C-alpha cells in the first residue's frame, strides 16, 4: 500500500494509487519565471494560475500577480552553500556597498537610506536600494511602491548561493531610477543569510552603488559582504541614543568591525521626534566628543514628511531642508568609495 500526502506537513494517509509527497507551493512573477525567483519553473512542472485578491494591509492591485509551482525539497548545498568548494557563494564588490544602520528604533533609518540612494541616483549613478531588515521589512510600503509589480525578498531563491544580477535587476520595482529590493517577512520566512549575500552580490555586480537598510544590524554578521561594507550609522541625538550608538560602533551585536578589512564609517545625527521647539538639544560637537567619531550633520525631523509616511503617501523627493545634507553625504560616499560622480 502506498502512502499519500494530501497536504504538506499532515500525517500520511493510506492510498491505493501511486503518489509522491507534495512540498509546499511557492510563487514566481507571472510575467515570466527566472532563476532568481523562488519556485522558478522546473522541467516537467506546469505553473498553475493563482489569482490573488488585493491585500487589505498593502492594497496591492487585484488580478493574477503570481503563478504557483511546486518547489523541490531543499538540497544540502542550498542549506550550506559554502560547504563545498564548487558551491561557494559569490562575493560582492563590497567597495560599492553602503550599509545603513541605527542602534535606535524609530529614528528614520529607512528614510535616511532611501534619501541617500536617491541623492546618489540623481548624481548619475546606477543605484540599488536593498532591504536587509529581515524581520520587519516594508521598504516598498514606505516608498509608496506596494502596488508595483516586481520581486520582493520572499520571491528570491539563491540556488547554490548565487543570483544572476541582470535578471534580478529587471524584475525589481523602480523608485525613480533606483532599483528596490524590499523585504516582506509577512509573506514567508525571513531571508536566510546566504540569500542576502547572494542578493547583495548580484546587485553590486550590475549597479554602481548599493545602499542597504540593515536595521540594527543583528544577524548580518553572517553576511560577508555587509561585514566589510562602508557604513552610515544614523544616531538618535539623545543621551540614550548616543549610548546605544557607542555600543554599536564598538562592534557588539552587529556587523560594525574595526581593522584593515572594515569599510569607512560615517555618522548622521537625527534629533528625536516630538521634542518641544525650545527644548535644549545635543549638538554634533557633543556627540563627537562622546562617540570619538566625526558626525557629518544633525538634522531635525520634518513633520510634513512624517505625516506623509503615516498616511501611506510614501517618499517622493528629498525635502529642501535635507538637500544640503544628503548631497554632502553623496559626495562623501563618492570620494571615499572611489566612485566618481556619474553622468546623468
From TrEMBL:
* Sequence segments annotated as region (Disordered): 1-81
This protein's UniProt keywords? ATP-binding, Nucleotide-binding
**Sample GO molecular function, one term:** ATP binding
Q: Where is the composition biased (Low complexity)?
A: 1-19
InterPro entries from the UniProt entry: P-loop_NTPase, ParA/MinD_ATPase, YlxH/NBP35
Gene Ontology cellular-component terms for this entry are:
cytoplasmic side of plasma membrane; cytosol
Signal peptide residues are none
| Database matches in Gene3D superfamilies | P-loop containing nucleotide triphosphate hydrolases (3.40.50.300)
Q: What is the lineage of its organism?
A: Bacteria, Bacillati, Actinomycetota, Actinomycetes, Bifidobacteriales
What PANTHER family does this protein's entry cite?
SEPTUM SITE-DETERMINING PROTEIN MIND HOMOLOG, CHLOROPLASTIC, SEPTUM SITE-DETERMINING PROTEIN MIND HOMOLOG, CHLOROPLASTIC-RELATED
Quote the protein name from its UniProt record.
Uncharacterized protein
Q: Does the keyword Nucleotide-binding apply?
A: yes
- Biological processes, Gene Ontology terms: negative regulation of cell division
Query: Nucleotide-binding: present as a keyword of the record?
Result: yes
